[in-house]
Amino acid sequence: MAATENPVISRIINHEVVREHFGYWPDFHDAEVTKVTFEANPGYWPSATFTIAAFETTAKVDAKGYYQLTKQCDIELQFSGIRKMEFEDFSHQNVIFDLEFEQQGSNIECRFDSSTGLEATILAEEVLVLGLTPTKQ
Question: InterPro entries this protein is in (predicted)?
Answer without folding.
Answer: Imm50
